[in-house]
Each structure stands twice: as C-alpha cells, then as structure tokens.
Amino acid sequence: MLTVSEALDRAQMLCAAATKAGADAADALYYCSASTSVAMRLGALEDVERSEGQDIALRVFVGQRSASVSTADMDAGELAKLVARCVAMAREAPEDPYAGLAPEELLFRGPVPDLDLDDGSEADPEALRAAALAAEDAARGVAGVTNSEGGTASHSRTRFALATSHGFAGGYGSSGHSLSASVIAGEGAGMQRDYAWHSAHHRPDLESAQAIGTRAGARAVKRLAPGKAPVGKLPLVFDPRVGSSLLGHLLGAIGGPAIARRTSFLLGKEEEQLFDSTILIRDEPYRPRGLRSRAFDGEGLPTAARDIVAGGRLTGWLLDTASARQLGLTPTGHASRGGGASGVSASNLHLAPGTATPAALMADIGTGIYITELIGQGVNPVTGDYSRGASGFMIRDGQLAEPVAEFTVAGNLIAMFRALMPADDLEFRHGINVPTLRIDGMTVASS
C-alpha cells in the first residue's frame, strides 16, 4: 500500500496534468484500501476475503463549466487519456455560476494533525478467525439460540489524499477493526434474528468478542414470541442503536444542497426553537480515534468543532462551496467528496446526554413502546413526514415487557424534534452517537 506522501504525489500529479491540458482549475482525490475479513458459521470457517483497491477521481473546471471522471487504472498512459477526456468533457458541459474550487483564502493551512487514526497494524488472518469464532461461540452459548448467521472479524487499512490546483494538498491514513455476530433464536415460524457489532480504528478499542456475541444472542432470545402493538398515540423510547437515525434526518435537512434546492422541511425554521432548550448536538472532527475524524473537508477547507444545535436552536446550515455560493454564504468545512461533485456531511456527531437514566426516562410511561429496530425509509425530506416499520418491546408501568413486532410508527420530524428527551447513557461507539431517546405523542399502527 502507498504511503500518504505517495498518495499525495499521485493526486498532485493529476492536478498538474489537468491544468497543463487546458483546465483553469482542478482537484484530484486518491483513495486506496486493503481489507481482510474472516467469517465463521456454526464453528467452521465459512469465508475469507481479501480485497485491495485504489481509485483516483479528477474534477476539472474550464471557466464555469466542469466535469468529473474517475478510474482505478493507474497506468501513466491511461491517466493521460483520462485527463484529456475530462478537460474535453468540461468544455462541452453547461455553465454553472456556482461551480469552482473552494475559496483559496479559506483553505486549510499547515500540517495535518495526528488524530491517531492508524494503529500501524497488519491483517492477521489467524487472529481474525479466532475473534470471529469467539464472537459466534458467545452468541450461540446464550440459552434459546438455535442457529447462527455467523461471526465476522475484519481488518482494513486506507490511504486518502486530496490536492487542488490552487495550493491545497493533504492526506491521511487509517486502520480499521470490526467484529460482529448474528444469530437466530427459536424454531420454525417463530424464529427471531438479531445481531451486535462494533468498529474502531485501534484494536484495543474494540469491544470484546464475548461481549458482542453475548449481546447478539440475548437480543435474539428476547425477541421470541412477539405480540401485537397497541394502536394510537403513544410515548416511544428509541434504543441508541436506532435513535441515531433521527440525527441522520436532521443532517439531510440542514445540508446546503437541500437548502439551495429548497427541498428541506426545515426551510424557514432557522430562527425557531426546534428542540427543547436543553438539547445540544455537536460535531467534533478533531476527536482522537474518532471514526469520522478529519482535519479538512472534501474541498480542502479546515474543519472545526461546532454545535449544530445549541439551546435547542439551529446554528446554521452545513455548506459546501457550491451551495454556499448559491445561498450567498461562506462554506462551513462540511464538504464530502466521492468520484464527482461534492456533497455535505458531518464528522463525529453526538447528541449530548440528559440527566435521567433510561429507567427514569421511562418511569412515568403507563403504556408505551421501546423501539429496537426500524425498517424502511419512509421519511419525506420535503415535508418531514415520518413513517417507518418497527419492532421492540412494550413498556408497561415504566418497565420493559413483552416483545412486539410488525407495527409502524409515524409523526412529523418537526414535532418529533420538539418532543425529544434524552437519557444520560451516551456512549461514543459510532460516527453518530445518541443516548436513549424518548418522544411522546407518536402514532402507532399495527397490522
């Protein structure tokens, strides 16, 4: 695998070739990865996968016209053809008054800080096999588990580099470790499946195979013999593993492209009290070992910690350069890049914990539902209307009770945000982290 320095050389070389071929400006993104994954099922080796890949994406600007191309072929002759083709495409593209590189005066300057994203490890297939087997064994050891979809352990290394023709060059490397288990409880038509997983940049930060497997098995067994959910407006409590999706809907609604297109349900809500005044939602791109940590965004602009929601109010939109220009604002360092035009994304996002334990948060609920799984994508980004399939457990007199399944939960995200109450059990495990969340007054329908 290339070093970060070598990756940067490739990206800078392609930018230079583009401007030499007639582009007014260009940026290039190089990405390479190597991963090894081992899957065990019923105590036997089921699969070993090793994959290595690299990709380079070029974006060029000729006046206010632009084009993007990408390839995995690093042959010098093929790259020269790629550059010529991209410049020719840009000359024929329609003009876009908002196209262009990020403002030069705003670019990230100085060395990329060490965010401790790479532990320097190499893949060890035998260790991966042992971890996958241990996770599955722990899950299968839970009474009531009758079958297994397997345990999987993986290791990866990545290198990323971004260069622009107006002076930015930056890159970083990272390692990744993940472990999961998925098992089945019960027999016949009454079978239930559940899972557990964890990922980390450093192997010592990864949760133990015993803990992951035991949690997967216990979750599957608890879901056996589900009943029907009641219908009507009820208080719902969202387990952290599904509650994070609510922040995903928020991110989509405050992204600059949606605002510029006027396709967000939060248009006109900038000054409103969107959440309770105690709610804080924070983006932290510089968190050491964070799964989405980054010092610069997909356009070379610096990132910074930011309270996206403070005092229950939005602090502004998340903007890439194109949407910022369209809105007459300044880009915020939230651009993301793939093979073509940029999009918008946050880094390590979390909703700050409240003061009540999950048990206290549920204590006054006479009849409600604790949601552990959400199904489908029934969210309208323009209106905020929300309707998804779900499963979970009844809450009766403040206590978790029998499992329920095959019902839908519905509401509108604006009303849901206003009613949201967090517990105190926040853990930093994923890219988006939330504590247990309670929302009253949602509509439940059962088939």
From TrEMBL:
Gene3D superfamilies: PmbA/TldD superfamily. Residues 33-90 form the Metalloprotease TldD/E N-terminal domain. Residues 232-445 form the Metalloprotease TldD/E C-terminal domain. One of its GO terms (biological process) is proteolysis. One of its GO terms (cellular component) is cytosol. One of its GO terms (molecular function) is metallopeptidase activity. Pfam families: PmbA_TldD_1st, PmbA_TldD_2nd, PmbA_TldD_3rd. Residues 121-224 form the Metalloprotease TldD/E central domain. This is PmbA protein. It comes from Sphingopyxis panaciterrulae.
